[in-house]
Structure formats: C-alpha cells, structure tokens
Amino acid sequence: MLTKFETKSNRVKGLSFHSKRPWILASLHSGVIQLWDYSMGTLIDRFDEHDGPVRGVHFHKSQPLFVSGGDDYKIKVWNYKTRRCLFTLLGHLDYIRTVQFHDEHPWIVSASDDQTIRIWNWQSRTCISVLTGHNHYVMCASFHPKEDLVVSASLDQTIRVWDIGSLRQKVVPADDILRLSQMNTDLFGGIDAVVKYVLEGHDRGVNWASFHPTLPLIVSGADDRQVKLWRMNDSKAWEVDTLRGHTNNVSSVMFHTKMDIIVSNSEDKSIRVWDATKRTGVQTFRREHDRFWILAVHPAMNLLAAGHDSGMIIFKLERERPAFSVSGDTLYYVKDRFLWLYEFSTQKDIQVVPIRKPGSVSLNQGPRTLSYSPTENAVLICSDVDGGSYELYIVPKDISLRSDYMQEAKRGAGGSAVFIARNRFAVLDRSTNQVVVKNLKNEIVKKSLLPIATDAIFYAGTGNVLCRAEDRVAIFDLQQRIVIGELQTPSVKYTVWSSDMESVALLGKHAIVIANKKLVLRCTMHETIRVKSGAWDDNGVFIYATLNHIKYCLSNGDTGIVRTLDEPIYITKISGSNIFCLDRDGKSRVISIDATEYIFKLSLMQKRYDHVMGMIRNSQLCGQAVIAYLQQKGFPEVALHFVKDEKTRFNLALESGNIQIAVASAKEIDDKDHWYRLGIEALRQGNTNIVEYAYQRTKNFERLSFLYLVTGNMEKLSKMLRIAEIKNDIMGQFHNALYLGDIQERVKILENAGHLPLAYVTAATHGLQEVADRLANELGDNVPSLPEGKTHSLLMPPAPLMCGGDWPLLRVMRGIFDNGSDMGRAGQEEEEDAAGADWGDEELDIVDMEGVMQNGEIIADLEDGEGNIENEEEGGWDLEDLELPADVDTPKAAGNSRHSFFVTPTPGMPVSQIWIQKSSLAGEHVAAGNFDTAMRLLSRQLAIKNFAPLKPLFMDIHMGSHSYLYALATAPIISIAVEKGWNESASSNGGGPPALVFRFSQMDEKLKAAYRATTEGKFPDALRHFLNILHAIPLIVVDSRREVDEVKELIDIAREYVLGLKIELKRKEIKDNLVRQQELAAYFTNCKLQKIHMRLVLTSAMTICYKGGNCSTAANFARMLLESSPTEVQAKKARQLLQHCGDKKDVNQLNYDYRNPFVVCGATFVPIYRGQKDVSCPYCGARFVPTIEGHLCAVCELAVVGADASGLLCSPTQIR
Description:
This protein is of the alpha+beta class. The chain is built from 30 helices and 61 strands.
C-alpha cells in the first residue's frame, strides 16, 4: 500500500472522489462533511447543516454538486462553488445509509433504514420512484455505471438487483388522477422499478454490494465475514465464489477500476485485496485500533480511499511510474511485461524483449528502476521481488533476433543495481552496507564497504555511485574507495544528471536539490505537491514535473511554471521546446512548451544582454510577474521597457535612476507626492535643476529656499523672501532673511510681528544703533538688558562649496540596456534619434521655464483675492520683480554629452565585507565587525559558549583593524579598513586580509611573562597570563602550516600550566584537610611543565607529603627530583629525605598511584586512570570525568566539555 494522504477526524462513514479534481468528500459521524484536496493535503471546506451522523455522500460527475444523506432523514444537495445547500429532499422515515448521483440522468438513489430505496429527480426535486421489497434496513444502493440497474444490500441477508428501465420514459404527472396514482406509488411502491434478481447466500445481514464497472459481476460483503462474488445474465444471477479471511463484519467491498482485483474492508481493522480471477487473497493492510467502515474507488485513477474510526486514508495499491532509462537518442522503458525502446528522433516505439513475470502474487512487484549500458546493450531491471532483486538482460543488437529472444535473465538479490562502467554493474547489499561490483556474467569482481548507511545507490559517473542515506547523499569512488562529495538533503527518490555530468538534480517527495558533480549545493526548491520527474534542457535549465505542473529551475534558485498538466507525466528528455515523456500507462508523449520566460531569465542571469534586448524588441514577454522579477533582480531599467502604466514607470525610473523618464511620468501623473519623490531622487543625484522644478511644481517654498541656500543662489533666495512677504508667511520671511544674513530685514520682520524686545536685541547686538534707540524709546521701561562682556559676531550662513550648477562631476558610462528604445516613445522618434536615446542625451521636454516663471507663475495658483487684499499697492500678483530669470530654461538631466550622463555610482562592496566573503577564520570576521558570524564560527569550530572573556579582545581587534579620519568638521568620521601588508602599489579594492592587532609573535612575549611569574611564585599573575594566551589563540591568524602546529603546541603548554596553577591555588585554599593537600600537591607533579618549574613542584610535593607523614610517597618524589637534574641545594635536600624515610610506609591513604598513568580532571581535580572513561574540552583538550559533560570547561573557561566541534581553524592554509 502506498499511502498518499491521511486525515485525523471523527469516524468517517461516507467517502466520494471528485471525477476530475484532486478532491475527496468525507462525511463524518459527527455530522460534518469535509472537502479535502488530497494532492495539497489541505482542507478546502466543511459543511455542517446535518443533525447527526452523515452516512452517505457523493459528487456529481459533471456538475458542481454533491449529495449527502444523514441520520436526520434528510437528503441535501449542495453546490460546492457557492458553498451552500441548494435544497433538501424529504421522504425517508429513518436513517439514510447511502446516496448516489446517476452519471447521465438527473437522478439520485438513496437507501434507508425505513426498508426502502428511493430514486429522486434532483432537477424537479421530487421522488420519482420508491423501491420496496426488503424487509430490514437497506444498507446500500447504487446505480449500474452503464445499464438501467440498481443493486441494493440489506440486513435481510439478500442482495436485490432492480430494473429501472421504465423510469427513462416517466415524466412528472400533470393532472390530479396521475397525482393520485403517484401518491399510491409513494406509499406502496410503484411499477417503475421491478426486482430483477434476489441474491441469497449470505448467512447474516449484507452491508455492501457493488457492480463491476464493465463486467456482469456483483461483489458483496456481509456480517457473516464473507465476501461473495456473483455473476448475472439477462435471465438469472448466481453465486460464483466466496472469499474468506475477514474476522469480523465486512463493511464495504468494491471492484478496482483499473486492476482485476477486489478490495474489501471490515470492522476487523483490516483492508484486504483479493485477486478477482484467481479469487484468492493477495494482501492485507491492518490498523492497530481503527475499524474500517467505508471504501471509495476513484472513477479514473489508480486511487482508493478508506474511512475508519479516526479519519481516512487515501492510497494506491501499485506504483504507476514506469521504469525507464535514457541513453542518447533512445529511451528504454518497461510496459506490460515487455522491455520497449523509443527513438526520440523518429518518435517510434519498438518492443524489444519480454520480461519475466514475478512469481509472487503480492502487489508492487513490478520493475522499479532500469539501468542501461549502451556499449554492451545490457539492461538491468530492479524490483521489490523477494525483498529486492535485479534481473540482467543482454539485448541482441540485431533486431531480427529479438523476436526469438528467450535467454534466461541473470538474477540476483540486491536493493538497487546500476551500471557503473561498460561491463560492470554495482549492486547494493543492505545487510552488510557494501556495494558488490559484478561483471555481465553476474560474477562478483569486488566488494566495497560504503561510507554511510546506504538504502539505495544511483549512477554518478563511471566508477562512482551516489549513496543515499536517510538524511544525506554521498558520491563514492569505488576504485579509490574515497568519498568525492557529501550533502545533507531531504530523502532523495530519484537523481537526474545533466548531459555533461557537471550538475545533478536530487528529487525528493516535495523538494529538489541541485548540486554540482562534487555535491556542492547550488540551490534547493520546496514544492507543496509531489515532485514526479525531471530532466535537464540544452541550456542547463532543470525542467521538472509535479502532479499538475511542468516547472523550471535555474541554477540560482529561480523557479516558475511552464505549463499545467491534466495528468501526471514522467519527463524523459527535453529537446528545444519539446518535452518527451511517459504517462502512467507507459505511453510515449511529446508536449510542446513555451520556453521564452526561463530563457529570458537565464540570459539575464548569464549577462547575455544582447539576447535580453532581442526578446524585449520582439515583445514576447509581458505581465506583472516579469516586471516584479526584473525589479527584484536589480534590473528596473529593463522592466521599464515592459510598462505602460505611468505610476509603475515612474517607480521603475526612480529605482533605476532614470530621471528623464521619471520627469516625463511625473508630468503625466501630476501628483504632489510623485513630484516630492522626484525631488528627493534628483537631489540624491545632484541634479539641482530638476530638484528646483519639482519643488516649484509642489510650491514647496521652504525646501526651495534651502536649496538656493546650499547652492549659493542668493539672487533667487532674495526672491523667495519677497514671495514669503506676499504670502504673509512671517516664519518663511525670517528664515530667508536669516539665510541671506540680512540683519535690517530680520529686525524689520520682528518689529512688524510685534516682537519688539527681540527686534531691539537683534539691532543692538549687530550695532544698528539708530534702530535700537528708536525701539528703546518705544519699549520705555521694558528694554531688555544685554549680557556684558560678550563679543558679538554676525550670524552668517556658511558659504556653499559650489555655487550653482549640478553637483556630480563623475562620468558614468552608458548603461547596458540603453540601446533598447524607450517603449513610450519608440513610435514617435525617428530612427537615427532612437539609436542615441540614452538617459542623458535628450531634451527633457518638461516645460518652458520662462513660461512657468513669467508673471510669478510659481504662485499663480494662489487665490487672487487674497493677494490683492494683502498687497494692494503691488498691483496684485503682477510683480515684475518676481520674475525668475531665463537661465533656468528647461531643466535637463545632468550632462550634455551625447554619449554620457551623470548618475550616482553604485556603492562598492566595503572592504570589511570582502574580508568575510570567503573567510572561515574567526579573527577576520571580528576585524570586519561581524561579531555574530565570528561567534558562530567559534561555536562550530571549538564549541565556545562563554564569550564574556573574549569581548575586550573582539573590541580591540575590530578597532585595531580600522583607521579613523576626520574629513570636515560637519562630516561624519570616515572609517578605513587596514589591510595586512598593504603598500602603495597594492590594488585599491581591498584584496588583502585584515591587519590584526593580536599576532602569534606576541604570544612568545606573553609566554615568557607567564613563565617568569610562575618561577617567582606569583601564581595568580601567572594564571592570568596563561588564560590570556588561551583566550587570544582562537582569534589569531597565522600564515603557514608550521605555525599552525606551533599554535596547537602553545595551547597544550598553556592548558598544562593553567591546570597545574589552578590545582596549586586550590591546595593553598584548603587549610584543614591535610590528606587533600597532599593529593593536590601530588597531582601538580603530573602536569607537563618546564624542567625548572617541575623541580620546584617536586620539591614542594616532597616537602608537603613528608610533613604529612606519607614517607613512601615523599621518597618517590625525591627520587623523581634527583632524576630531573636538580640544583645542588635541591639534590642535597632530596638525599637527606631519602635517607631519613628509608622503608617507612605512608600514614594516610592517598588517591594517588604513581605507577598507574593518569590525567587529572580539570574540574574536580581527581585522577582519571588509564582505561577509565573521560570527556575532553574540544578547544584546550583538558580531560574531565564524564559527569562534567555539557558544562563549561573549567580550564580554558570558554568551551563546552564533550561538545562536537570541527577543530581550530587559524590559517588560510588549513582551508585550501
């Protein structure tokens, strides 16, 4: 059983497949009807108007209708498009068991516990016949698919077949007498339907009976646990056979639409499959806790559904994918027990050789995969027979010999088998996880153990196999026995190699992974519905089929739909715009597709802009999807060619920096918001003429004033002051006066506004004594006092860096697509003009500025009345002195050369980003300021979890790898990345790695300082020095392999000293436990230290143990001291102690055995003897007892003990 979809719900009592769409209706014991899309696995709708369980449900074959019948005695007809019940049919007097539409006539048949079967006309909404005769509940009733027959099953132990031929002629009665006879018919049953046969044979009530779709057969299931097969002819019907096997009531039984089998299910929690010709059991599928109640068979596809106590299951009995293999111009495939050959060039099918029929009767034993060797004309066919086996056929090259071909195929056991060379094939032996290589005589040549637990193998080039595990794939070279590549993927079902063997597509159930020949990932796609097959086209685009679409995928991960499918196909080859495929019946088909969309995207991706322009000119593409794609990929200038809508053109023009088209669109739209956005973009590009024009169109006087200030246009700023005066905009007047540095004007404005104290302060401060005196007189006693001792300075605006004109002086070359004509004007312009139509070489044709500015047009839209009232003596708005000069003719896009224009250059990639692009060295990521990626790298490489000690080092490295420049007082500080080994001749695009403040050479100095502190007995200082070394090493970068080894050696040295010093400091803390003191002193001697320090440690341990009464242990330390070339004083002391101790024993038992090699646990300070289990720190290598696993390392204080890590990475040489 191949499960396609499962649901969890209340008990499912009724099921019905839609004839065309991937939908199924499930009616539940709770009264709800669910509509599911089983290909997507989603619940589309639910209908819950029935009161009580709904036992029957059925889709109409062609109308958007379904019918349901429930325990509320009601039959409801629904429209699933409008999602409502159209009407209810009343008449039954008890529970309704089943309902069904007729395929052709507007009839519904229903079976009920009221012992009747009713036939209804759903168009006239009346009951047209009542079939009476059963004397117990009628459990089911259904129409014959072709003839005028109804079959019913009842708990009275009979099956009845009714002839309803006379219903065809029946019409709705017109007069009262006929109505009376109709009423009698309703009560007592009419003569419209007569019983043709009564089938008796079951010993208990019959639950189900159904017709064969084409043959005169009936199958029934009953409470006597038996399935019976009946045959009928024109005159009689009789029992053919009984199928026994169910252990409880048989709920439902049906014929399969496509296969010669019977499917039944039962309250014994099983579904059984029977061979209809041999009349034997083929297979049984069981559930643990759920009884089965209902079966449904898809009318057109190889699908079945079964309803049980906790939901339903949709399944197939056999795989429908034909086994096939493509080789050059030929396709080999298996169909109907024959091997076939299909030639793509001639489109002809040729039957090649017969294939052995599997001996077992169980399902799913057909060929699964096929592998072909073209040189030897050999075919390998794999199937699930006997738990997985293969058959090898050598096909005669001479066509005439094929008809007599009777050679016995060579067979063998194996999960999967593929050709790996001309005359060699590999077979997977799952039990031993190895590949067996055989020759064409089926003899074993060699065996290779596989690197991963493999459940299938695929071809991966000559001599290689692609091994599939549950969560990964790997390519294994059988000759060299090495792994060429490995990749984590969802479970892979099929692999498709490109013709040049450079790319592979790994197809899963819902995912496609595209990788190169070494399994380096290129992209991954996820599909909501199942992926069925795929092939590479000549351009390197992967074309694949899902259940209902053909789609494409580019190597950058872009996907799209090529066309929809009516039924699933299996793509075999793609040639130009033709897709060759096999359908589920094994027939070869050719489908034509339009490849324009993906060829366009491929050309864009490959930067083949001549192709792109050709496609644009031919206008083969259009639509919002293409525009959105071009925008997303950063080609708004290309998208411009497809757009007619002015708002979209405006947005695209701004995005691509094409001011010219943006201005033209803004004129068409003439909306304040668009002018404002145009102004912002023009300002960004430094195109001040356009900025000015945009601000004038929106009457944005404040921004205009500021623009004139920054461009140093004092003349126009003065005019802005006059405009503010006319508008009586006091704040605007004051701002403009401030920008102009006009003191008298500011005093005048403040005085007119009634701010006399402010006017006085302004006049007095700036030395306008006469005005100040006059204002002082007006103020009288309220004259404000001025602060004494302050020097006054004139508040003047800063002079602009450039006066007038457009800002950018940078030449930018013509854009890639500027040879393509602008679609909006292509028809109007002459040929020679069109050739040069790039962004900066046309007149903008915005407006005649003279005309705009004449007679103060800039504010002409203001109300005339208002102006006249406010400034009568100026003659209203006819202010000659407000004319803006003609030098603002028509604003042009910056630059006048025919072959260049000015746009802002695209920002380059920051050097810090270049540093981290291909680097896996944590130090370089820290230098670039990417602390999060550096932390992730350290976590992955060394399992570092505690980053607190590294924070100051991170800050130092980042600050030290950058230099900071002050450019202007008002400008932000410029950060400059400092490269390692930079010189003036080096390229300016940041090719080198960063200069790091921590270098390996500095570690030598730190180590000497640490040794010095240890010698002097300054243990806390020494510990701090060694820990600093351990903390700095993960961020150091070295150049050579030799230095990498030295770094690792330094880690070992630092670890031993940190451990020893921590043991010693712990010993000094303990005052009251003499035994523990002696143990710790003894453990310190086990650390690998420099000789000078080892002598000091041994002397100390010898003394402590002697004083503690452990003479034997003290004597052992004395002997060790004498072997380590001690000083004269140390040697003398050791000899004296040996003499004094003699053969004395230890007073206290210590947890210390010098004869048994051990390491000391870095956290608990106890010995871990050889052979005992331990865990280690992935960074420093310190050892710990197993209980410390998962805790922070107590030695380096950085990494997690026992965690997985890839190891220290401190040099680019380790990556190459």
